[in-house]
Amino acid sequence: MKEEDFLNFNEWFYHYVRSFYSDDAFIQQNVILKEEHSIRVCDNVSLIARSENLDAEDYNLARTIALFHDIGRFEQILKYRTFKDSESENHALLGMEILKAAGILSDLPSEEQEIILTAIMNHNIQRIPDGLDQRTLLHSRLIRDADKLDIYQVLTDYYEIKKTSPNPAIDMGLSDISEYSPDLIKDIFANKVLSVKNIRTCNDMKLTRLAWLFDLNFIETFRLVRERGYIDKVINSLPHNREIDGLHTYLKKYMDSILE
Ligand SMILES: [Fe+2]
């Protein structure tokens, strides 16, 4: 894909997102949240793509996927007033439908259209399905890492202002009590990627985010997670006790072992 194609998509995205700007403060706040998220995911994917020496075609393709990966979020928040897929619809599938209906990808080679749609479909599922060709697999991995990096950013920024400006859309409607499930801790010590299906509290959600370390694909992503202090910040937002301290030490060692 050419740079010019990406710039055109950027232009389309800009106007598309503005069509959701609203006088409704809840909608406006969350449209901006996802607009800024999408732009920062483009920046993250650029960093990873550079470190992996992707050629210009794949670099522009990766940035396009990043720009569009959450395109379904705007309609989702407007229609359902939640980002919870289980209480609305799968935002990745919704996004694919929006891109298809807009016909925005139709001038691209069909291989690139397929890669964009498949990478979007794979960005929010528990694991990437088997049997993908190398290029689709690469782009599915890139968007998953770049997205996770910025979700860490959004969450850790949010923990700092949550007391004064709570946002139920970020908390996914979970109860913000000090409890967390001990089973989730056990699973992290077994290097398991956790499902969000059975989580009950905000702290459980934080634990699933910590377990994302076991689902990262690129060294550059680990480097950025460490440089930006995401794990330390999530840990600091959890109750302070020996179990969580132990978890912190374990995760730091895990990151160090990958980055050595
Ligand atoms: Fe998403």
Description:
32% of the residues are buried. It is globular, with a radius of gyration of 18 Å. The two termini are 35 Å apart. It has 2 domains: 3-148, Hypothetical protein af1432 (Orthogonal Bundle), CATH 1.10.3210.10; 174-259, no CATH class. It is mainly alpha-helical and 260 residues long. The chain has 13 helices and no strands. Bound molecules: fe (ii) ion. Fe (ii) ion (FE2) is lined by residues 69-70, 91, 123-124.
Nearest-integer average pLDDT: 96
Q: List each distinct ligand once.
A: fe (ii) ion
Major sheet: none
CATH fold-level name of the largest domain? Hypothetical protein af1432
- Main CATH class of the largest domain: Mainly Alpha
Tags for this model:
260 residues, mainly alpha, Hypothetical protein af1432, 13 helices, 0% strand, globular, binds fe (ii) ion
Chart the SSEs and their pairings.
Blueprint: H1 3-18, H2 25-51, H3 56-68, H4 72-80, H5 91-102, H6 110-122, H7 134-161, H8 168-171, H9 182-189, H10 202-210, H11 219-227, H12 230-236, H13 242-259
Helix pairs in contact: 1-3, 2-3, 2-4, 2-7, 3-6, 3-7, 4-5, 5-6, 6-7, 7-12
The structure holds fe (ii) ion.
In short:
The chain is mainly alpha-helical. Helices cover 67% and strands 0% of the residues. It has two domains: 3-148, Hypothetical protein af1432; 174-259, no CATH class.
